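Researcher: Good morning. I'm working through a list of sequences from a screen, and I'd like to move beyond sequence-only analysis. For each chain I'm collecting a predicted structure so we can compare shapes side by side. This is the next one on the list. No need for commentary yet; just the structure.
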Amino acid sequence: MDREALGGSEIEVDPDALRQKYREERDKRLRPDGATQYLSAEGDLAHFKEDIYAKPVARDPVSVDVGVVIIGGGFSGLLASSDLEKRGVEDFCIIEEASDFGGTWYWNRYPGLACDVESYCYMPLLEEVGYIPTRKYASGQEIFEHCQRLGKHYDLYRRAYFQTTVTSVAWDEDSARWIVKTNRDDVFRARFLIRAGGGLNKPKLPGVPGISRFKGHSFHTVRWDYEYTGGGPTGELVGLKDKKVAIIGTGATAIQCIPHLGAWAKQLYVFQRTPSSINVRANRPTDREWAGSLPHGWQKQRMTNFESMVSGIYQEEDMVADGWTDIFSTVFHFAAPDKNKLTPGDVLQMADFKKMEANRRRIDEIVKDPETAEALKPWYNMMCKRPCFSDEYLQTFNRENVKLVDTKGKGVSEITENAVVVDGQAYEVDCIVYATGFGFGVSSEDQMGYEIYGRNGLSITEYWAQGLKTLHGIHTNQFPNYFVTFGPQGPLSINIPFALQAQTEVIAEIIADCARNKVRTFEVTAEAEVRWQEKLKDKAFSRAKFYEECTPSYYNAEGTSIGFLDLFYFGGPVDYTQVVREWLNNGGIERDIERTYLE
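Model: Good morning. Structure tokens for this chain:
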């Protein structure tokens, strides 16, 4: 392929000028407070996380002994439950804060919500329940309903304790049980504990002065208030016809809901710190003839093909053929020096420059106002922020009632009783919508709202105070019979359910093995943790400089990179799946796990 060609079109770029521009734009956004610039929805801000979708249900406290407690009823908990059942483990229960299964798909119900990964890959266990999504990118409502479908298929509702919040988790050495207590005065005594809570449900808010002072209406996108806006997940926000609305944030969530806000609000102000990279979405209904021709095992094959493509692993066929695989096939498949003797890294960077330049040119083609178009252009490498896909977002800025307020990387300055202030200019509004994402802490208390105490009262936060230590992101020394999904030091994946399945399958097999062999306690050795840290560092080494040079985002701890490279396994989810499977099949338990047995 010609080195000036990208997707069949000739695009000229000046690499040195782009590197300089990227650095300048990054430096505008660097802040000394890094990730601590955000606020949790606690105290005066606690109303931002209240469950507005269900009425409280009263029940008596329970006190039970159980084989396995699963904390979380989203995809992690559902996959863990199904894998346990497949292996004959029936003695388990699920504790869930929401009033139904779904996790992030229960809490997030904003207009336009949909998965940005193809639904045939994203929605797990489709073959097992005999369901095919209605569209290539399913709506949030359809995914939520699929979670309910899984709950019914695996008979999980009778095992679930909904509207129940875990308040404390502690290991009891004498009984070799996890003691799990809740806000309903429940006490669960579990042989094994699976923490299956994801990081996409607890809203974070910008640390802007005056956020509690605003006297108008405000809410976070993770608790969309349809009583105020009117309408529903498909739009029709009739309650905003006479309202001036501000939305703060222009990430993946905002990209989906801004077109609906723009269509209905009297005036919409979009407050942007860093623009997202917008690619074509091209959603479409499922071809039923194609769906009927799918062979046994099709979903696992398709998921693996997708993850391989986006990990830069060559595939004979691109089964998914969407925006994600186009990005990565364009960028990663330039992995050979060209006739001008560029290094493979230089070739990859050149391809990235060209792909991002194509995105910037597309903005000029769509957005009519030149100043707005220029402000919407992303100046960073493709994977510094999660790429977004939309066929309506950029077009929304052509509406007369929509104004982009570009904060030039600084963010909102202040919020008053009736306005959002940027650089001294006040924009009076009736409503503020916060599209500022989710808290993603390392400690259990940060992520889940409670602490976990292992042997001798040691908290997991204390254990990790001098650095994260796990095996595969699943097991932790000093915390027997304890498993984590979607936790630190697991795989970094675009399609999260693919990575989750690798973890829940291994967890279920270990628990089933412990049951067969009458294992009392199961604990990873410190030596095994050390070996995993070495592997993590080896995989992360090549990514360190990349993320250090990225514009601030949650991908690099808002530009600090502190702990970020220890937080994930950068070998890719396909490689990770092979690693944990080989570990399980080749004596990993015998080598790396200390076990005691029931008498």
